[in-house]
Amino acid sequence: MKRHSWLTLAVLVTLMVGTSYAHGQKSTERYIPIGQSPGVSGKVTVVGVIEAVDPNARTLAVTGWTGPRVVVTARTRIWIDRSASKLSTQPGAFGDLQPGRRVEVKFEDGATKSAAEWVKVEALTP
C-alpha cells in the first residue's frame, strides 16, 4: 500500500512540474530575445528576415522559410524585441512587421504551419 502511495505521489509531482514549465514558458515567452527560447527557437519556430508583407492578406514572407506565407490573425501576438538596446520587450502591431526586419514566428498549429501564434520582431535601431 505504501509503495502505491509513493508511486502515485511521484506521478502527480512529475505531471505538475511538466505542466508548470510549459505554462511558465508561454507566459514569459515575450521576454525572451529572438532565437533564444530554450526548446522552442529553431525547433518549432522560424527565425529569419521579413522579405515581403501583404497588409491586405495579413501575410509575411520570411527568409529561410520555404512553407506558405505566414498568416497574422487577430489572435496573433506581436512583440517588439528591444533586447539589443537592453530594453524590455513591448507589444507591437502588424505595422511593425516591415521588410528587412528580423523575426521569430511560432505557429498555432505545428502541422499546417500557416497561422502565427506569436511573432517577435527586432526593434529598429535608433
Structure characterization notes:
The protein is of the alpha+beta class. The chain is built from 1 helix and 7 strands.
Using the alpha-carbon principal axes, give the shape.
globular
Largest sheet, order of strands side by side? 3-2-1-6-7-4-5
How would you classify the helix and strand content by structural class? alpha+beta
Order of helices and strands: HEEEEEEE
> N- to C-terminal separation?
66 Å
Rg result: 18 Å
* Total strand segments: 7
Q: How much beta, percentage-wise?
A: 25-35%
Number of helices: 1
Largest pleated sheet: 7 strands, mixed
Overall helicity: 10-25%
Mean pLDDT reading: 83
Which regions have little confidence, pLDDT < 50, spanning 5+ residues?
19-24
Question: Could you provide a short overview of the structure?
Answer:
This protein is of the alpha+beta class. The chain contains one helix and seven strands.
What are the key terms here?
126 residues, alpha+beta, 7-stranded mixed beta sheet, 7 strands, 21% helix
List the helices and strands and how they pair.
Blueprint: H1 2-28, E1 45-54, E2 59-62, E3 70-71, E4 77-81, E5 90-91, E6 102-107, E7 116-122
Parallel strand pairs: 4-7
Antiparallel strand pairs: 1-2, 1-6, 2-3, 4-5, 6-7
